[in-house]
Design goal:
There is one protein chain. The longest helix is centred in the middle third of the chain and has 40 residues. The chain contains 8 helices and 16 strands. The strands form 4 sheets. It has a 6-stranded mixed beta sheet. A 6-stranded mixed beta sheet has the order 10-15-13-14-11-12, with helices on one face. It is of the alpha+beta class and 359 residues long. Helices cover 33% and strands 27% of the residues. Helix 5 packs antiparallel against helix 8.
């Protein structure tokens, strides 16, 4: 705490020392207002609002480095941009940086709790006066640049990992399409084709399909599942082993979870136990591809019933081919999960840097 009072960050690059200066945002930059763009012609210059890219026009409102911050609506998502652009009136842009490095300002803006400065009771809003009056702590330009460059490297890693995750998900989606349409087939251990697929109703490969009954308690170690996943704990498990859980009511109706553990289930979730004619993970992937949300009905409280599910038609290969398909897709899921963990770690690391490299 004492270091913070002295305007010295907890974490610092070794070549820098001395106190940071306290200034108001209005002393280090100018804030520009967005404008209507409907009178402009189509072009290559992006038009931004609080939701991101809106259109492209032939005229720029400003060209250069800037940090966007929402004036109205989404006010807590600053964005760095360098180039020609136009903004609408719900989005402020910054320019004319004075003794401040734009990418460092972007990092500063990510540290500010903008909702704490909200000026409206309805749609969140900020004003230039409020932003200009906010106090920030500023090191030398060279230290600003060093910090900003380090954070930019972290941002780029997060961006690359996010793209990698998206590509993995796209690849999985494409492979699921090929595998379930039988455009792509596995071979058996002798290199021969597996038997033809059969069409079965889900009830033909189901051992049981029923609703849960457990109410979450504030004690115990057994997970209780509801329509949104784990929603609490209880003392006694009602089920143990491999099951597919399907949310049957509410906004999440049709969403499924694969469980292999001891657990209990609430009454807004269906519990599907399969018989020996099918591999659970294969059926889970099949149901996922069928998009169970299409079965949901009711405008008030969305619902999906056991009766509907039992009538679903499933294209079923042999057990051996089911295992191969399920194993292949599970391996892809694990790759996605690994990348997701890397993203989470990088985001936590960035959060740590934002907390400790600044005053």
């Amino acid at each position: 705490m004492e270091k913070v009072k002295k305007n010295i960050p907890t974490l610092r690059f070794p070549q820098f020392e001395g106190k940071w200066e306290t200034k108001k945002i209005g002393q280090i930059l100018q804030i520009g207002s967005g404008k209507d763009f409907k009178h402009l012609k189509k072009g290559n210059i992006p038009v931004f609002g609080t939701g991101g890219l809106m259109d492209k026009v032939d005229t720029a409102l400003y060209t250069g480095e800037t940090v966007f911050i929402g004036r109205k609506g989404t006010i807590d998502k600053p964005v760095y941009f360098n180039g020609s652009f136009w903004t609408v009136d719900t989005l402020f842009y910054t320019y004319d940086f004075n003794l401040s490095y734009p990418k460092f300002v972007y990092a500063l803006f990510q540290r500010i709790n903008w909702y704490a400065h909200n000026e409206a009771s309805g749609v969140p809003s900020l004003s230039k006066t409020t932003i200009n009056s906010l106090k920030i702590n500023l090191p030398s330009l060279s230290e600003q640049q060093k910090i900003a460059n380090f954070l930019t490297t972290t941002d780029k890693r997060i961006e690359l990992l996010t793209k990698k995750k998206e590509l993995c998900q796209q690849y999985k989606k494409a492979m699921m399409q090929k595998l379930f349409s039988q455009e792509l087939r596995f071979k058996d251990e002798n290199g021969k084709n597996f038997p033809k697929w059969e069409t079965k109703k889900l009830r033909e490969i189901t051992e049981s399909l029923s609703s849960g009954k457990t109410k979450p308690q504030n004690e115990g170690s057994i997970n209780v599942y509801g329509s949104m996943g784990i929603i609490g704990k209880c003392i006694d498990a009602t089920h143990k082993g491999e099951y597919i859980l399907i949310a049957r009511v509410g906004a999440n109706a049709g969403t499924l979870f694969v469980i292999n553990d001891e657990f209990s289930v609430t009454d807004n979730t269906l519990i599907l136990k399969l018989n020996e004619r099918s591999i659970l993970k294969f059926i889970a992937y099949s149901l996922d591809k069928l998009n169970l949300n299409k079965l949901v009905f009711g405008s008030g409280q969305p619902l999906i019933t056991a009766g509907q599910l039992k009538q679903l038609k499933i294209n079923l290969p042999s057990l051996q081919e089911q295992k191969k398909i399920a194993g292949f897709l599970t391996a892809l899921d694990k790759k996605v999960e690994l990348v997701e963990k890397q993203i989470q770690f990088s985001e936590q690391f960035k959060k740590y840097l934002l907390q400790n490299l600044f005053v």
